[in-house]
Design a protein that fits this description.
This protein is an alpha+beta fold. The protein contains four helices and three strands. The protein has one domain: Winged helix-like DNA-binding domain superfamily/Winged helix DNA-binding domain (Arc Repressor Mutant, subunit A, Orthogonal Bundle). The longest helix is centred in the last third of the chain and has 18 residues.
Length: 96
């Protein structure tokens, strides 16, 4: 018998990380405040999940200034894109 959940990626178990990856998979990038508003999260909550995804190299950040205000943009890496797609494929197989 095949293990139906073996190919699910544990890092995406959390709904917030799933939301972050969903946003970044359909956009070239998203900044911190945009994701905070879309996901309706506090700064600390979002920051901790972004850090977890950065630590496994699924996303990358770019820091810049817009005017005099700091701005951090996030984008999905090639590794993150392939791992997220594999996770979604596994979910789809599980549902079938």
């Amino acid at each position: 018998m095949t293990n139906l959940i073996a190919n699910l990626n544990k890092i995406f178990d959390n709904r917030i990380r799933l939301g972050i990856m969903s946003i970044l998979s359909v956009n070239d990038w998203a900044d911190f405040n945009t994701m905070k508003q879309l996901l309706e999260l506090t700064d600390g909550n979002l920051a901790s999940h972004l850090k977890a995804l950065e630590n496994v190299k699924y996303i990358q950040s770019t820091k810049q200034f817009i005017g005099r205000k700091p701005n951090t943009r996030y984008s999905i890496t090639e590794l993150g894109e392939s791992e997220f797609k594999a996770h979604l494929d596994a979910l789809e197989k599980l549902l079938k």
